[in-house]
Amino acid sequence: MKPTSSPLTPEVAVESPEIAGEDELERLRYENEKLQKINRVLMRRVEMGWGNHSDAYQSFEDAAMLADKVKERTYRLQQTLHRLEESNQQLELARRETEKSQIQAEQDRQRLRDAIESISDAFALFDADRKMVMVNSRCAEFWQQHNITYELGKTSFQEITAASLVLVDHKAKAQKKVGVYPDPIAQTIFKLRDGTWIQMQERKTNDNCLVVVYTDITNIKLAEEVRYETAM
Predict the structure, then answer these.
(1) Residues 68, 154 within the same domain
(2) Which one of 95, 115, 135 terminates a domain?
(3) Where does a domain end: 115, 133, 163?
(4) What values do phi and psi take at 143, rounded to 5?
(5) Burial code of 73-103, b = ≥16 C-beta within 10 A, e = fewer?
(6) Which residues 6+ apart lie within 8 Å of 64 measured at CB?
């Protein structure tokens, strides 16, 4: 079940490092400009000889102290700029890597879709939770033809199997065989009510997904029956 947010729980906005760095940069710029302006005013007072000598000397000292502060602020401003630049570079690198991974993943999915569409059998892929994640057009057409509904990401293998039972001719004996390592394929052969014979093969993948392939073997079964009748 998808978790829902409670109205009693406040949502906390998380400020990104990039925004925080820009705010700090703007603050330092403002303070630096303010100190430089004060420093220029004091230096003009000294140069113009306002007041007595002690006032002029005090103004000179104040100007010198402010100059040191301006220097310190400028250094901090440069450091912040450097950190912001590094942060932007890292964010850009992460964005490019993410895009590259997404493109690669989509290419892999497309290759898989092309591969399952190229086979003549009906193909279905279920994830580790046995939820259907992919089918080819032949499988989709078969289920639609027999009014079996499904939804990718939701319909389970058990649900599809249960829905398919009404199509099976239970008078004909089903055949089941389970392979062993290194080819652990479960194979079931059964007959549908319309006379079609189906071979269903199930195989687990390394990541515990389930591949199911449905093959129409009606012609093979009919040929077997002809040989059997001829031999009699």
Answers:
(1) no
(2) 115
(3) 115
(4) -70, -40
(5) beeebeebeeebeebeeeeeeeeeeeeeeee
(6) none
Q: Which residues contact 215 (CB under 8 A, 6 or more apart)?
A: 121, 122, 198, 199, 200, 201
Which residue do the tokens 């052969």 mark?
189
Q: For residue range 158-186, what is the model confidence (pLDDT) as tens digits? A: 999 999 999 999 898 888 887 666 667 88
Please, what's the largest Cα pairwise distance for the chain? 134
Question: CA-CA distance, 216 to 223, in Å (whole number)?
Answer: 13
* pTM of this structure: 0.57
Angle subtended by helix axes 53-118 and 17-48, to nearest 10 = 160
Pairing of strands 186-191, 175-178: antiparallel
Reported as a single tens digit per residue, the pLDDT across 90-141 is 888 889 998 998 999 899 888 988 989 998 999 999 999 999 999 999 999 9
Write phi, then psi, for 191 (nearest 5 degrees).
Answer: -110, 135
Please, which residues have CB within 8 angstroms of residue 73's CB and are 6 or more apart in sequence? 28, 31, 32, 35
Cβ neighbours of residue 105 under 8 Å, at least 6 residues apart? Answer: none
Dist CA 38 CA 35 (whole Å): 5
For residue 173, what are the CA distances in angstroms to 136, 169, 176, 193, 198? 28, 9, 10, 12, 12
Alpha-carbon gap, residue 119 to 134, rounded angstroms: 14
| Backbone angle region of 199, left / alpha / beta, with phi > 0 → left and psi within -120 to 50 → alpha | beta
Domain count, the chain: 2
Q: Are residues 73 and 172 in the same domain?
A: no
Cα 138 from Cα 122, distance rounded (Å): 5
